[in-house]
Structures are given as C-alpha cells and as structure tokens.
Amino acid sequence: MSHTRTLAWHETLELHELIASQSVGLIKVKKSLKKIRDPQLRHLYSMAARGLEGNLRELLPFLPKAPVFHREDERADLFFEAGELLALAKTSVRNYAIAITETATPELRRVLVKQINAAIRLHEQVFQYMYQRGLYPAYNLTELLRGDAMHAQKAISMR
Question: DSSP labels for 58-114?
C-alpha cells in the first residue's frame, strides 16, 4: 500500500461529494430527531446520526491530503438549507434516470422524462442560487474543500 502525501484529484472530488452529502444528511437527521416520538424510530434516527458522525470523523482527516485546502464561513445554515434542496434535486435526477431505463410503458416513460427534466431544471436553479451567493464555489477546489470541512464540523457538533 502506497503512502502518498496528497489525494488524486478524482478521489478528492468524490471525497467532497461524500462529505457534503453526509453533512447535509446529518443536519437533517438531527433536526428530525427532535420531533420523533416513537421510541423505535427515534432509536433508528439516533443510530443513523451516530453512523453519519462516524463517517464524517473518518473522512475529515483526508481533507488536508487534498491537493488544495482550508476555509472558515458563517453562512452554514443557508448552505445546509440550500444544500438539502440541491441534494434532493440531484438524487431525484439519478432516481428518474434509473426508473426511465426500467420503463416499458410509453405513457409512463413520457411522464418520467417530463419529471426528470423538471428535476434537472431545479438542480440548475438551486446550484446557481448557491454559486451566486458563494455557497458552492464549484470552480475553486480550495474553497469547496474548506467549506466541506466547516460544514461537516458544524454537523458533528450540532446537538
């Protein structure tokens, strides 16, 4: 096994996607946990939160090995709210793409194509919103990774 000083660009981008999506997911799970009354479901949510926290704690030490790194920001709440919507749109596009490849009924295929196009437009609009406000610096890997680290730390520390 090789011990490199930096990650490759492609694995850095995958690391970004994992940290960003799991940070947003952790915030969502922790916010939902406060509202859940059913003990068994509450336990499942607690397990999910611990799992996501553990994942982030294991992934964060790799960020300093990225080809570029470091950031501080105070707009984390806005990032999480917009990021949650961006993740929903992205997941919808992926889910529709899979569903379309499994569809044999022409009428259903037309509906799914219409809906995937709407999900693609939503993703673009949310991305542009985030990009224009500096919440998603897609063309600046240093800033992108700094934001990932900050958002993940905030998600972990949230009670």
Answer: HHGGGGGGSSS-----S-HHHHHHHHHHHHHHHHHHHHHHHHHHT---HHHHHHHHH
